[in-house]
Design a protein that fits this description.
The protein has 358 residues and is an alpha+beta fold. It has ten helices and 13 strands. Strands 1, 3, 5, 6, 7, 8, 9, 10, 11, 12 and 13 form an eleven-stranded antiparallel sheet that branches. It has a two-stranded antiparallel ribbon with strand order 2-4. The protein is globular, with a radius of gyration of 23 Å.
Length: 358
């Protein structure tokens, strides 16, 4: 049983090596074929096994972020102590019966800013149908409310479907509280970035601006490496891209895909549906440097099509200098939030661009 537990992909070689070192056992090779048999021979005390189990049970997906715009009715501070707690107990019982919250949902000031509130939460998901070592997994999420002189932003970061659903409920609860206080108009709704808001041509423009048109020194796009694209239904394709005819989905992987004719030539864009791409950036942020690969797009396009919402997640992340896992995780999360903020800037300028064309 311990062998099957330790050989899970979510458990790194370094974690097993650390546990052995705490028992005074040092190995020259950290590969599991050497360390797992040694771990199997140990007679662990209940306390020791609990430490091992807690270390192994934390399985977190990559953080994914999306944001919505909302107008505040006034410029009053949104930090109101009596409405900072979001009651989601009934929702948890009704909609997430296999999950439990690690702690209550409480909004706090972010960097002591009374107009930037954040609620971070942790969900434990229990699945009794799986092996004993896979029955409990831990996922995190957070919700942010921001007021910038009446312009509002709601940012959601999630790591699993359950944390996404819970975050949506938290937003719903808090928006209703602010409406009752008169800080948000009754008919105001958070505005999503939906697939349906774009034509085929303008969707290419939006992706282009996110990759090569960012107005920031934090990120520099170096490569477009993966794209998801397909020909428009019943479209008469130009001769140069006739090879795409009859293809329902095209997943291309490579380097500098933005240099391909069908990506850079505007004459092709009307006939093509682009919904996702991976872009590699170099970054310089909070004194750290490195590279990230971002997945940008509409991840639910295949199932929701027009109602699919734009989302960002980091698929690869590296730092120039060595950081401990906790510091690296915090940096990664902050960079994701910053990239989502840049996306909002790009989107608002994109809307101004569209309005100027009318």
């Amino acid at each position: 049983m311990l062998r099957g537990y330790a050989n899970q992909n979510i458990i790194s070689n370094a974690e097993i090596h650390r546990i052995l070192k705490e028992r005074g056992i040092f190995t020259l090779n950290q590969e599991k074929e050497y360390t797992v048999p040694i771990l199997q021979t140990l007679l662990l005390s209940p306390r020791e096994f609990e430490e091992v189990r807690n270390s192994f049970s934390k399985k977190e997906d990559n953080e994914k972020a999306f944001s919505r715009e909302i107008n505040w009715a006034t410029n009053e501070t949104i930090f109101i102590p009596e409405i900072l707690s979001a009651d989601v107990n009934d929702y948890m019982i009704r909609s997430l019966p296999t999950c439990e919250l690690k702690h209550p949902i409480i909004f706090t000031k972010y960097n002591d800013n009374q107009n930037h509130l954040i609620a971070e939460f942790t969900l434990y998901r229990h699945d009794r149908n799986k092996s004993w070592f896979e029955q409990t997994n831990e996922f995190t999420g957070k919700v942010e409310f921001i007021n910038e002189n009446g312009k509002g932003h709601i940012r959601i970061t999630h790591t699993a479907p359950e944390t996404k659903d819970l975050a949506e409920q938290i937003v719903k609860v808090q928006v209703n509280k602010y409406k009752q206080r008169g800080l948000i108009h009754q008919d105001e709704k958070p505005r999503k970035i939906l697939f349906s808001e774009f034509t085929n041509e303008t969707r290419f423009v939006f992706f282009y601006r996110l990759t090569t048109h960012l107005d920031t020194d934090y990120f520099t796009c170096e490569n477009i490496k993966d794209i998801s694209i397909k020909p428009e239904d019943d479209a008469n394709l130009p001769d140069e891209i006739q090879w795409m005819d009859k293809l329902k989905k095209i997943l291309l992987s490579g380097d500098s895909l933005d240099k391909k004719d069908f990506m850079k030539e505007k004459k092709f864009h009307k006939s093509l549906v682009l919904w996702s791409m991976d872009a590699t950036y170099s970054y310089e942020y909070l004194g750290e440097k490195g590279k990230i690969t971002l997945n940008l797009g509409f991840p639910d396009y295949s199932s929701k099509v027009e109602r699919s919402e734009f989302e960002i997640n980091i698929s690869q992340f590296s730092t120039e200098r060595s950081l401990d896992s906790q510091s690296k995780k915090k940096l990664k999360s902050k960079i994701l939030s910053e990239m989502d903020r840049q996306k909002t800037i790009v989107y608002n300028r994109f809307l101004e661009y569209l309005n100027s064309k009318k």
